[in-house]
Specification:
alpha/beta, Rossmann fold, binds N-(3-carboxypropanoyl)-L-norvaline
Length: 313
């Protein structure tokens, strides 16, 4: 079993329940991963993903080993048939097979380039490891998705929801840099598996991939979207149509207390890292209703339920 996208989850409520059980008793399956190694490969920065995935592995008795390709690994070539006379030292074909001999599971973080839409949509890095590795692969944020984050989000909403069918709003917010679509994509795919009133809100021009949004509701008025919301999930992303571009930094989209007051006492969520007073004000982020720290804690249990299922196979 690989964990490449949210679509790997057959029964979301069962996975969430299992994660909450693991949270209550994290060391229960400590024998499961004995003498098993997980290799965490990073092509990009990480705080939560790196530490929570290691923590999850340790809770299951596994030994994590970590490699940073950005700074320490050989620059990898992903294309077939290339003449490797430029900067790339090693082909993923060898690298993935070699790493598979050292590891029982390989987890990979490789963000979208945001320059080559076609390669990003084809999941160039993740797909190459799936093709050439001989062990299960876990996605720790690829160009298209961040399914460990979305599963942690589902766990968090289960813990904090006050109504059976909450109103959940995914709101774009401004950011100085061009950010990937992965977190928003997986959150949408996860919400499509939930019984909830789900609304996406963003300025015109920030439409996400229609193949992911499908028939989820898009409301261009942030104010209208926030009415009666139980959860405000905030995330910046760059334009998908004008691929990878920052087309607006409209700070009237920043999450403020005034806006939160229009909701049904909504909880504030964000995957972190978050830019204070750009994406969200200090006041909201430091408020009682902000659950970003609890949300980050659930990263351990989302990773743990995934690794447990892989080990059990
Ligand atoms: C990443 C993203 O996909 O948006 C990772 C989120 C888990 N976020 C960033 O790269 C933020 C970087 C910044 O400078 O604020």
């Amino acid at each position: 079993m690989n964990y490449l996208s949210i679509n790997e989850i057959d029964n979301l409520s069962e996975w969430v329940k299992e994660a909450i059980d693991l949270k209550n008793n994290p060391l229960k399956h400590q024998g499961l991963g004995k003498n098993k190694t997980i290799g965490l490969l990073f092509f990009n920065n990480s705080l939560r993903t790196r530490l929570s995935t290691q923590k999850a592995a340790i809770n299951l008795g596994m030994d994590p080993i970590v490699m940073n390709f950005g700074s320490e690994g050989w620059a990898l070539e992903f294309e077939d048939g290339t003449v490797m006379d430029q900067g790339k030292s090693e082909h993923v074909k060898e690298a993935a097979q070699v790493i598979s001999q050292f590891c029982d599971v390989i987890a990979i973080r490789a963000f979208a380039s945001l320059t080559d839409k076609e390669k990003d949509l084809a999941e160039e890095v993740l797909a190459a490891f799936v093709k050439y590795a001989t062990v299960p692969i876990v996605n720790m944020e690829s160009s298209v998705g961040h399914p460990l984050q979305a599963l942690a989000d589902a766990i968090t909403m289960e813990e904090f929801k006050v109504s059976h069918r909450p109103k959940v709003v995914l709101s774009w917010a401004p950011h100085p840099k061009a950010l990937p679509h992965a977190v928003a994509n997986s959150f949408i795919e996860m919400m499509q598996k939930q019984d909830a009133e789900f609304v996406i809100t963003h300025p015109k021009g920030y439409e996400l991939n229609p193949e992911i949004v499908k028939d989820s509701i898009v409301e261009y008025s942030q104010e209208k979207a926030f009415e009666n919301a139980d959860f405000i999930y905030t995330k910046n992303w760059s334009s998908f149509n004008d691929y990878g571009k920052v087309i607006s930094q409209d700070n009237s989209w920043m999450i403020t207390s005034d806006k939160m007051e229009k909701t049904n006492d909504a909880k504030f969520m964000h995957c972190l890292p978050v830019r204070r007073n750009v994406v969200v004000t200090d006041e909201v982020l430091d408020s009682e209703n902000s659950i970003v720290i609890q949300q980050a804690n659930n990263r351990t249990y989302s990773a743990q339920v995934v690794l447990k299922r892989i080990l059990e196979e």
